[in-house]
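Tokens help. Our protein:
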Amino acid sequence: MKQKMKVLVCDPIHKDGIERLKRAGFTVDVKPKVSNEELKRLVSTYDVLVVRSRTAVTAEVIGRGRRLKAIGRAGVGLDNIDINAAKKRNIAVFNSPEAPTEAVAELTIGLLISLARRLPYADHTMKEGQWAKQQLKGWQLEGKTLGILGLGNIGKKVAKIAKALGMKILITTRTPPDPKLLTELAGESVPLRELLTRSDVVTIHAPSTRQTRHMIGKEELHLMKDGSYLINTARGPIVDEDALVDALRSGKLAGAALDVYTVEPPKDLNLVTLRNVICTPHIGGQTEESQMRATTIIADKIIAHLKNT
């Protein structure tokens, strides 16, 4: 690099990524609780922003970043970054979609098993001194049909684990899956409508875009099997939460497991307080290994992009 560049880290990230940037010659300032207003004031003096999901890199922020050359998102989704505004300014935008694959897939399978065996309820009743064995008849995963909406890195990993557990695999994705992968999974690629009507459990692994907002709404939930289950560890806005509340209260769905929400943290607790809903606070990528990979991958991408600038 011809001159020393400045990086502003706006959210908590793993120390390994910060150290990697410093070793490459960047000046790194870490402000993990920076507010949007403060970011607007500070951004003009930085060449690079590194964020996670908390910080919104809006068109206004980008417009004030007269020195900005790159924005790094330590994680998968880019919905908190105005991509079009960055493109207009020729600012590179990077993310690390490969980093949380194992962590999110493992959480998805954990939620699937928790739904099948009602583990949160079992734990709760035991702690209250109850022996609720007769109330805790679950269902086995073997032989059940898992519908996977989206077949990126995470969707593929979930499919492979579910196949190993003896589940039948249905897939709906924007682009046709690799035939070799379908053969390996003994899976079928089907339209969304067919996936919903045939699946015992539907799990979402699609990005949050204008096209996927409320992809699972009232009509789609109505198509699902009576007594089926929904898992969302992708992005909250993909599911119409009001419609999901109605489906869960009516008994149309037997249950749901959610790690993501339209508003985070949720202000309306109607959904998360339902007894047939298992909730976690967006912890899909919250493992030590995933956090380290996310930040080191982003650091390497930023370094590679700017090393000759």
Q: What stands out?
A: The domain at 101-279 is CATH 3.40.50.720 (Rossmann fold). DSSP finds twelve helices and twelve strands in the chain. The first strand starts at residue 6 and ends at 9.
